[in-house]
Amino acid sequence: MDLHPDVTVELVLSDGYVDIVGQGLDLAIRFGALKNSSLMVRKLGDNRRVICAAPSYIEKHGCPGTPDDLAVHNCLVMQFGPVIDREWSFVIDGKKCDIMVSGNRTANSGAQIRRWCLDSRGIALKSIWDVRDDLESGRLVELLKDFAPESQSALQIVYSRGSGSVSRIRAFIEFLVAKL
């Protein structure tokens, strides 16, 4: 904003899917596949999701050896809008497999899921970007590495073709890309 003092920012934070057109937003930064083809996309990078838990959770409840073992663990589940993310993807015997998980805590905030995980409340599926420091420091431990899917989810900027000032949005995107 120092470079462009006339710019104003209205920041809407949500871990759920937001209808940027319906809500009159210029753009959104999202992970995952784009479902609305009327939106323009600029990829910013890749993101890997990891299964993790606090060492004290593992000491008390044991470490799952396979994805199927998650059935006897308390999994911390994200809710994205109306969608509860209970299907976690793995690779078993070379094939993608979705495992249904359950637990006693669901939140629509990735930060809250991380806090519960750090507090030994269960096992979480988190973005590596969210928990990298926790893994490196030993506050969290990555689990089921041998079953992790190879695919990554893209971090991308999405915006509407009909946005008020596409040149302004493109300038912001280029600025953001340069900073990353």
TrEMBL record:
InterPro entries: LysR-type_TF_proteobact-type (IPR058163), LysR_subst-bd (IPR005119). Residues 3-178 form the LysR substrate-binding domain. It comes from the Bacteria. Belongs to the LysR transcriptional regulatory family. This is LysR substrate binding domain-containing protein.
